[in-house]
Automatic annotation (TrEMBL):
Domain of life: Bacteria
KW Ubl conjugation (keyword) present: no
InterPro entries, sorted: T3SS_IM_R (IPR002010)
Protein name: Flagellar biosynthetic protein FliR
Keyword DNA-binding: no
Signal peptide: none
Organism listed in the record: Salipiger pallidus
GO CC terms in record: plasma membrane
Keywords: Cell membrane, Cell projection, Cilium, Flagellum, Membrane, Transmembrane, Transmembrane helix
Length: 251
């Protein structure tokens, strides 16, 4: 037995698994947040590679040509990034909703450290993102994420990729994310219309009323009150959508 060839095959096999799992952890909600140090995420990807490799339907890689090796790494990394990015797109629905709520409630200038995929996140967006991460761990959705990582090898065997299906699923995820953002922010749109309509009527009846100075506190107070009432439902809606997508990969 050629020990060198055996060790090389085992190393390349683990490296291919690491490429997919690392791509998933790079973007997966809760596991790939930017607040988690890169070294910790890298260590998690390595540990999961070592733990899952014996149970995955993969074997030692024997790729003698550099072109084949690069192509195999590219396919695995693409699949991992696609899985993590699709879940991240679903999470950005809450970020979109938070941006809309902040604009309606007059808190769009209350910036906070970025927790999502774009700069300039509002305070409400960051709060919703933190709540979503807490809900993921509280409801054990991270266990479902890990199961989806393992089952991804059943849906997408190693070395095979269907670019058309991946693109279609990304478009579907974007539509779902937009739907989540609009549906959870809908009550705030109604609240904003009613408050502004009331202030407009009051300004017509009392021209000397400083509408801006009266309306701004009302919008902020109403937005925060409604956020406190609606936040659990908003987070549950996101968790259910994410769980449905993960179950589609597991089962």
């Amino acid at each position: 037995m050629d020990l060198s060839a055996l060790l090389t095959g085992q190393f390349l096999g683990h490296a291919l698994v690491f490429a997919r799992l690392g791509g998933i952890i790079m973007y997966m909600p809760a596991l790939g947040e930017t607040v988690i140090p890169v070294r910790h995420r890298l260590a998690l990807a390595i540990l999961m590679t070592l733990a899952f490799y014996p149970v995955l339907p993969v074997g030692p890689a024997r790729l003698e040509q550099p072109g084949m090796l690069l192509a195999a790494f590219g396919i695995e990394l693409t699949l991992g990034v696609w899985i993590g990015l699709t879940a991240r797109i679903l999470l950005t629905g809450l970020e979109f909703a938070g941006a809309q709520i902040g604009m309606i409630s007059g808190l769009s200038n209350a910036f906070a450290p970025d927790m999502g995929s774009f700069q300039g996140s509002t305070l409400i967006s960051t709060g919703l993102m933190l709540g979503a991460v807490a809900v993921i761990f509280a409801t054990d959705l991270h266990h479902l994420m890990i199961s989806a990582m393992v089952e991804s090898y059943r849906i997408f065997p190693q070395g095979q990729i269907l670019a058309g299906d991946l693109a279609q699923q990304i478009v579907t995820a974007v539509g779902q994310s937009f739907y989540i953002g609009l549906s959870v922010a809908a009550p705030f749109f109604v609240m904003g219309v009613l408050v502004n309509l009331g202030m407009g009527l009051a300004a017509r009846m009392m021209p000397t009323l400083p509408v801006f100075f009266v309306a701004a506190p009302l919008l902020i107070a109403g937005g925060l009150l409604m956020l406190g009432v609606a936040a659990p439902m908003m987070l549950r809606e996101f968790a259910e959508r994410l769980a449905d997508w993960l179950r589609a990969m597991v089962f």
